[in-house]
Amino acid sequence: MNCLIDRGKSDTALAFFQQLKRLGLSANAYTYVILIKAYCRRGNLDEAIKVFEDMEEAGVTPSAFAHTTLIDGLCMHGKTPLGMEESRGPN
After folding, report:
1. How many angstroms separate the first and last alpha carbons of the chain?
2. How far apart are alpha carbons 69 and 38 in whole angstroms?
3. Are 69 and 33 within 8 A, CB to CB?
């Protein structure tokens, strides 16, 4: 799934995950991070946050990498003070 995202095929990776869920398979921490990354790349930050929350509800402890991936996505899209500062460029 990560390779799909890196090649700009986030939709395919997300569809693949939905199929896994339909089959009753559960995700691990790494899979959740990949999903967060996919939604962030698409600019769908609400879904990225939802995946993060789903991860916690499923009893999977978010790693530092999960936090960093979500924060990076928020910054890329100007949804944090740091992200907004970066989008304005240097003073």
Report:
1. 39
2. 10
3. yes
The b-or-e profile of 36-53 (16+ CB within 10 A means b, else e) is: bbbbbbeebbebbbebbe
Series of mean pLDDT values for 10-residue runs along the chain (91 residues):
79 82 85 90 89 89 90 85 51 50
pLDDT value of residue 33: 92
Note the pTM of the prediction, 2 decimals.
0.73
Rounded to whole angstroms, the Cα distance separating 50 from 75 reads: 17
Length of the chain in residues, anyone?
A: 91
Token reading at 7: 């090649």
Please name each of the domains of the chain with its CATH number: 2-88 (1.25.40.10)
